[in-house]
Structure formats: structure tokens, C-alpha cells
Amino acid sequence: PGLRVIQSLSAGVDWLLPKVPPGVVVCRAVGVHDAPVSEWVVAVILARRRRLLEFWDLQHRGEWNRDIAEAGDGWHHPIDDLEGTTVLVVGLGSIGRAVAARLAPFGANVIGVARHPRDDARSADELPRLLPEADVVVNLLPLTSETEKFVNAAFLERMKQGSLFVNAGRGRTVDTDALLAALTSGRIHAALDVTDPEPLPAEHPLWHAPNLFITPHVAGAVTRWESRGYRFAGEQIRRYAAGQPLLGIEAGTVDLKLS
User: Fold this and answer.
1) Could you tell me the residue range of the domain that residue 81 belongs to?
2) Within this chain, do residues 182 and 102 fall inside the same structural domain, yes or no?
3) Active site includes 77?
4) Catalytic residue among 146, 198, 226, 235
5) Which is catalytic among the residues 170, 172, 187, 228?
6) Out of 56, 90, 159, 248, which could bridge 28 as a Cys pair, Cβ 3.0 to 4.6 Å?
């Protein structure tokens, strides 16, 4: 009965909210996962642009094949760098800003998208115009009633031929059937750290979809994430004790009145 605040150590709290009693504040771990998740995003973009997984396969076949670097076909595309690449970040929160900061030294053109326009982000209403221009689309949306299956068939059909879709947000923000269709057609490539369903069953067709790289929700699972989380939780406790505003209060939960 005395519970007033729940501090999550995850960036998203959609899984937690249905279990929270009325009148309790829920806080996200703002900033804790920015570095590892944004590094994962940059890593998979580089791996796709440089076609590292395909060269890994060639290595294990003992095959010296430069053709893969010099010509593309309907399913594969030549090696490319990041300079001048347009990267669209959908869901420009703290992780999205960390992605933008890490891509800047490569000379990429990063465009952030948020629900409402602001100095560092375009409005979501502009997506129909922005998607065809992007070489890479990074989805970092949280899961809400408004974002469930936000990335649908219409969204994916607007993406540029041969572009890369990266999901490090929430699996249920993507229509899995629509993504499977887009991958199978050869129109786009994808890298997923989150899926719907999750965990992904062994028999699920995503495992065998072409042009797809999957990791099992480990983008933020680095050796130092727990120490970062505990430091953040400690700062939240200090703020609570001092009567200061807490960080990362989840929208829709009650405002905390300290006295």
C-alpha cells in the first residue's frame, strides 16, 4: 500500500505497465542503454553496407570472390560506405540521439523523426515523403497503443529499393507478416534485435527469411549495463529523498507529488 515509485532498469516499460497498481509512478532507465544499443545499430548498419556476413560465408567456403563487391543484382547490392548515406531514425529519444551522434563522424546524413516536430526532429506526418529518400531506416519506437504495428505494409512499401530496416525498439511496433513479405520480395534488407513474437519460436519463418540478420534482444546486454543501471537508480533515490523531479517518468502514469 505504500508503494509510490517503480524504477525499471530497461529502456521500455510496456511489459511492466499492465502490472502496476493505480497511483504508482513508473520510471524508465533513461540513458542507461544509450551507448550499447546505439553501438549495435551502427554495427549492423556497417555490417550490411560492407556485406561482412557474406564475406564471412565466403571465408568458410574458402572462396576468394571479388564479384560480390563490384556488382549487384535483384537480391544483393554492392559494398558501400556511410559517407553521404541518409539514415532515418524513427523515434528520436535518448537512444536515437546517441545513434545520430555515433553516425555523425562517418559523414552520414541523419534525420530524426518524432511524434511532433522539434529542432532536432521532423514530424511523423512527414514519413511518407522521407521514407523513399532513406538508405537506412532505424526503428526505435516504444510500444504503445499508437505504435503497435506502426511499421506496416504501407510503411515498408515506401522504403527505397535495397534499403536497410533496423529494429532496436520493440518487436510489436512492426507488422511481422508485412516485413516477411518485403524481405522475401528482395526489396529491402533488415536487422532485428527485437521480434514479434518474442522469443522467436524455432519454426518461425523469420529465421529463414532472406536478407535478414537477427540477434535475440541483446543490443543492450553489455558487461557494464548493470552498473550503469544501479548508478541511475541511486540518482533517482537521491532525487526522491531530496524532493526533486524524477527522470524518465513514463507518460500516462501519475505525477509524483513530493512533500
Assistant:
1) 35-214
2) yes
3) no
4) 198
5) 170
6) 248
